[in-house]
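[[Per-residue structure]]
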Amino acid sequence: MTTPEPSISVRVDPANPGQFFACCGLLELAHRLRPGAEARFEGTMFHIWTPRAVEPLGLTALIQKLLDCQFTGELSPQETEELDSLNADKKRLEAQQQKLPEKAEERRKSLDKQRREGAITVGGPFSIRLDWWQVGEDDPATVKTWSGQQGNLDIALAAKLTLAQLPLAHDLGERLLPFSHVLKKAVGEEGDKHGARKKKRGKEEDAEPFYFDARRARSALDIGFSPDVQKMPVEAHPAVELLCLIGLQRFRPAPTKKRRVFDYWTWTEPLPAAVASAAVAGALPARGDTRWRFRLLCRDNQCRYKAFDFATPFRS
């Protein structure tokens, strides 16, 4: 029986765990729009097939829907306004060498923690709740790379805003994951609390990525220091950062006996999302599947900030 042409094909480096889990994120998004979508790896290509009984779903349409949808955090609009007001009061009082009242400061810290570390909702038509990072720092299965001082929603929105600069042309599958650009977050942008694509009204500032893409971590090792610590703008890979964040909700690497070392498996038979997530963790070993091992690199001497390193094929 002849295998039909895939609906979506993307060039991928399977040794880059960020790119691998970004492909898993693409499968998750395709599954949300076309339940029953299947995917597999074939060398340096990742293919997705969507059900033939419904309208075909191409990569351009999928990415456009992702760019158009809203990303929201756990704070309500009222809580966001309250936090903004408390932060403004704190700044004003500090200029007068005074402090917020104790209860007001506790409330401000609570709201700020919820804003930085809370779950993210990817809105319609996908409707995905992302909260996989909400585990203890000592959990051996955690692959969280950022510190509690960094806002996860801010990073996700910066990746989404920057990804919108990639032309959605016919060869998108070749350019999506390699696309690099300094991440930008908009200041004073209409709708930026939700990630809606609206006209910008303020200047842009550079933003740090999640460090899911191993190319970013490796470049820091090659030059001997982390450019972001020195406040140097360095290009990141917005599609990898955003899609990997989504992919890790369902698709998780398997922790090993070594701290901060993980395995994942590429699979070669078309599988739906629910089954593929088991294959990723090595629960469905099959002929042709490849096991990869990677580690989390520490980006500071306290290992608060981490990064995905490149993976190598592993044979036990």
Observations:
- The longest strand covers residues 290-298.
- Residues 188-201 have pLDDT under 50 and may be disordered.
- The chain has one domain: 8-74+118-313.
